[in-house]
Specification:
ATP binding, Ribosomal Protein S5, domain 2, transmembrane, 19 strands, six-stranded mixed sheet, Lon_Prtase, single chain, alpha+beta, membrane, transmembrane helix
Length: 406
């Protein structure tokens, strides 16, 4: 879709000699013969005077013009290949064992309930995206990515909303990750008969937003202006309906204790805003913490739920196998589709995974792109993902399990 013409030299030979690729000539014709005005007299008197006249001649205007033109062309081509373009490049990111550590920190920690030893690996998979808000890619990088089957080039507006800043993107990804973790934990606990109660929590606060320094990520909303609501969406609607520019009284639960705060507001697009992102959370007797620095998005839900279930149940869920996967996890246990499935398959295999749990709704993107040695199993719900993992553990293969081609 984007191509660059090869640099062309001016038509015909240069007036005063050959040109290099992006510079001026050396003042001689091919073979080193003097360009004009002198000859090798073999010692004939007058040779020195002729040489002095040749060295002192003025540059040929045609040669100078040709050299300058080529230099300009090379400069424009170089600048064009380095200029930012509105595309993003998706490529395989790391596959991370949720049962292990990431950046020297245990990913999954659980208190308030007995835990059991685990083995093998339950690997969440990621996609590295170049060219998002605050970052750029060049035409050269885009062209190289087009010829790499493990990478995908997409118009930026298909991935990121227009005018979205780097911080807003990070905050959005953090919110999606928080919601994913909360839903995954709730699904696993519900499967084990442990009660969970939904709440609304602050997933992130804009650094330059009105609520900065007042609210914190992790605050659970108890009430707003003395009013309680049943869901995150209803609290969002309540905030939007209040007068902009005035402070809003809230009660939040922070570190287990309730406290009152007064939060400034502003008007954005005709609605009242605090500069926060709310996420769905849950109250539960089991304290589950998932620590993953610099990783965002909702697609690890399926693997989070399996990891929590594994740690809270006797026996080793994976049977020592390395199982990777992806997929969002809805509160009702539905596994949802995600982006970048082809890159995630590659990343999983590169990290040594032998099996991959893929959302059923991504199967059309999986077929024909499975790395050699990787068995891909199709799943639609948490129960199906759990059954697939237990089957792989017991028979050390994915034989008999549904695939994206069956």
């Amino acid at each position: 879709m984007i191509s660059q013409p090869a640099a062309n030299t001016p038509d015909g030979p240069a007036a005063d000699g050959p040109l290099d690729d992006c510079g001026l000539g050396d003042g001689t014709r091919p073979g080193g013969a003097p360009s004009r005005g002198t000859r090798d007299d073999g010692g004939v008197p007058g040779r020195g005077a002729a040489l002095r006249r040749a060295l002192g001649r003025r540059p040929n205007p045609r040669a100078l013009a040709s050299g300058i033109s080529l230099l300009v062309i090379c400069t424009l081509l170089t600048a064009g290949m380095l200029a930012p373009v509105p595309y993003v490049i998706e490529q395989p990111g790391p596959a991370i064992d949720v049962l292990g550590e990431h950046e020297d920190q245990q990913i999954l920690t659980i208190s308030g309930h007995e835990t059991y030893p685990t083995s093998g690996a339950l690997m969440m998979t990621t996609v590295s995206v170049d060219g998002g808000p605050g970052y750029t890619v060049t035409p050269a990088e885009v062209v190289l990515a087009w010829f790499d089957p493990t990478r995908t080039v997409l118009p930026r507006e298909l991935v990121f909303p227009a005018q979205q800043t780097r911080q807003e993107t990070s905050l959005q990804n953090a919110s999606a990750m928080t919601t994913s973790q909360e839903d995954a934990v709730a699904v696993a606990l519900t499967e084990l008969g442990i009660p969970v109660t939904p709440n609304a929590m602050v997933a992130g606060v804009l650094d330059d937003g009105p609520a900065a320094g007042v609210l914190k990520a992790g605050d659970v909303i108890v009430s707003i202006e003395g009013q309680t609501r049943a869901s995150t969406e209803e609290y969002q609607q309540l905030i939007g309906s209040l007068p902009a520019g005035e402070r809003i009284d809230m009660v939040v639960r922070r570190d287990g204790a309730e406290q009152s705060v007064s939060v400034p507001t502003e008007e954005v697009d005709g609605r009242t805003r605090m500069g926060i992102v709310l996420a769905r959370g849950y109250d539960t007797p089991v304290d589950v913490t998932i620590s993953l620095a610099d990783v965002g998005g909702p697609s690890a839900g399926t693997m989070f739920s399996l990891a929590v279930y594994d740690e809270l149940t006797p026996g080793e869920l994976t049977g020592g196998q390395k199982i990777a996967g992806t997929g969002t996890m809805d509160p009702d246990g539905t596994v949802g589709p995600i982006g970048g499935i082809r890159q995630k398959l590659v990343g999983a295999r590169e990290e040594g995974a032998d099996y991959f749990l893929a959302p059923a709704d991504n199967c059309d993107q999986v077929a024909g792109h499975v790395p050699e040695g990787l068995s891909v199993v199709k799943v639609s719900t948490f129960d199906e993902a759990l059954h697939a993992t237990e089957t792989i553990a017991s028979q050390k293969s994915a034989d008999g399990l549904p695939t994206c081609s069956s």
